[in-house]
Amino acid sequence: MKNCAAAAPASWSIHDLKPSERLVLWSLRYWTACKRQSKPCGDLLREVYANNGMTGAASQLGVLMDLVSATALKAPGIRCTACPLLSADELAILDAVASAGERRLKAAGEILERWLPPQCVRIALVMIENFALTVTNPDTGQSSA
């Protein structure tokens, strides 16, 4: 197994993330690992999100990642589920989710532009906002604003 920890600054540790951020990161990594191995991943993701009161988040993430996978001009660097450090792309994706959850869609869009063509960014913004609102407001998926 490749030592992915050697490639990132030590300051980007998963241990510095909030639990909800760790869940999103693990989900990205798990989804990516399953797709690389041509294995289904939806059941476990649905169970994990449902157990955390985030019903619908797994399908929202899946649709978003399917769009990224199918249309990315450059694939984001997603590490393995065991890596203790974040890649620059993973950190950027977490920032995009946080921005979308705060309805700062321009900031989220600028991040998504690193990988997606403009017409796909518009679609991805709707998806990432729905996902972010579900993750940040469990059981409702609604903004508290």
Task: Tell me what the structure shows.
It contains six helices and no strands. The chain has helices at 19-36, 42-51, 57-71, 88-101, 105-112, 118-136. It starts with 18 loop residues before the first helix and ends in a 9-residue tail after the last helix. The relative contact order is 0.16. The model is unreliable at 1-8 and 141-145 (pLDDT under 50).
Number of strands: 0
How far apart the termini lie comes to: 45 Å
Structural class based on helices, strands and sheet pairing:
mainly alpha
The helix/strand order is HHHHHH
Please state the oligomeric state of the protein chains shown: single chain
Q: State which percent range the strand residues make up.
A: under 5%
**Total helix count?**
6
In brief, what are we looking at here?
With 145 residues, the chain is an all-alpha fold.
Task: Produce the secondary structure layout.
Layout: H1 19-36, H2 42-51, H3 57-71, H4 88-101, H5 105-112, H6 118-136
Helix pairs in contact: 1-3, 2-3, 3-6, 4-5, 4-6, 5-6
